TrEMBL record:
Pfam families: Lipase_GDSL. Belongs to the 'GDSL' lipolytic enzyme family. InterPro entries: GDSL, SGNH_hydro_sf, SGNH_plant_lipase-like. This is GDSL esterase/lipase.
Length: 370
């Protein structure tokens, strides 16, 4: 996520509507002509829905998509995601999912993200004994392959690609969270997972480097969310005593782990900036943006507690793995915008909107997006 010259115009326009929904600021002038996105279920706009029957029991069913689209679209939320709000803020159309883009004009961008995707390839999970947990084999390297496949339809020479992609925004993630999720849900310890962090973070920065070599100049690389605030983790990996929880009620150790991943990722991004000074490589602090509304939900318009799930099957956090959102036995709240947590793992449209706003206008992108 980044840009030049018309910057002052764009910044002024966006700042004027900083108190409004990002989607209402879609008329703001932008100097991005396209946007390309990679990642997992935080960013997927339909690829898992097309590629994997597993999703038909979950994100392919109502109430997914109930708020904005009024139907399931393959997004793991009640409505739009961060990638959707950013596209609208820059005057671009919502990015079509790559596997749904055949016959469509994708010159303004396409989304390669896949729900359940990992930064690492399947052999990594075979090695750690967690391959049976994978939702999909469409990892980050596969998504980069899709980008290479579609590239000739966008530009046909090194010069034209350099010019075309210099006006494009690349969103590289969020990706890597599932690498740890699969490990944790397989019974791996936090200490086990910490040994994976340098490898996972390197996979993300290696992908970023490949895109730079392909001509990308403006790239946003998000960090991981505070998984210790996820109702799935709170339910499936509860603490043993009150000291395991912070003042919000999130699990300290899992949040510390997410921050550790983010710190390692930022170190690797700093090295990448030194190597490619011509590229604008921005780190998006999803963790900080999410913790801001977890700590002060009412300040962001959320009337329900940040740990309670809107769509779920009961329990203290309204998360039940046997009756997850979209499955018989689950119920959906009447007003998702009052909640930050959608289904126990993913956030509501309102929460993604808050993160997008924070990335656009707040201190949560380094260097600053605008």
């Amino acid at each position: 996520m980044a840009f030049p010259n018309k910057l002052s115009v764009l910044a002024a326009a966006l700042l004027l509507c900083s108190l409004a929904r990002v989607s209402q600021c879609g008329g703001a002038q932008s100097n991005y002509t396209s946007m390309f996105s990679f990642g997992d279920s935080l960013t997927d706009t339909g690829n898992l829905l097309v590629s994997n029957a597993l999703s038909n029991a979950i994100v392919g069913r109502f109430p997914y998509g109930m708020t904005y689209f009024h139907r399931p679209t393959g997004r793991c939320s009640d409505g739009r995601l961060v990638v959707d709000f950013l596209a609208q803020a820059f005057g671009l159309p919502l990015l079509p999912a790559y596997l749904q883009s055949e016959g469509k004009d994708v010159r303004q961008g396409v989304n390669f993200a896949v729900g359940g995707a990992t930064a690492m390839d399947p052999p990594f999970f075979e090695e750690i004994g967690a391959s049976d947990k994978l939702w999909t084999n469409l990892s980050l390297s596969v998504q980069l392959g899709w980008f290479d496949k579609i590239k000739p339809s966008l530009c046909n020479s090194a010069k034209s690609c350099k010019e075309y992609f210099s006006r494009s925004l690349f969103l590289v993630g969020e990706i890597g969270g599932n690498d740890y999720n699969y490990a944790f849900f397989k019974g791996k310890t936090l200490d086990d997972a910490k040994t994976y962090v340098p490898t996972v973070a390197s996979a993300v920065t290696d992908a970023t480097e490949k895109l730079i070599k392909a001509g990308a100049r403006h790239l946003v690389v998000p960090g991981n969310l505070p998984i210790g605030c996820s109702s799935a983790y709170l339910t499936l990996h509860p603490g043993k005593n009150s000291s395991d929880y912070d003042s919000v009620g999130c699990l300290k150790t899992y949040n510390d782990f997410a921050q550790h991943h983010n710190e390692v990722l930022q170190q690797k991004l700093r090295a990448l900036r030194r190597k490619y000074p011509q590229a604008r490589i921005m780190y998006a602090d999803y963790y900080g943006a999410a913790m801001a509304f977890a700590k002060n939900p009412k300040q962001f318009g959320f009337t329900e507690g940040p740990l309670k799930t809107c769509c779920g099957g009961g329990g203290p956090y309204n998360f039940n793995p046997v009756a997850s959102c979209g499955v018989r036995g689950s119920k959906v709240c009447t007003d998702p915008s009052a909640y930050t947590n959608w289904d126990g793992v993913h956030l509501t449209e309102a929460a993604y909107h808050a993160i997008a706003d924070s990335i656009l206008h707040g201190p949560y992108t380094s260097p600053r997006l605008l």
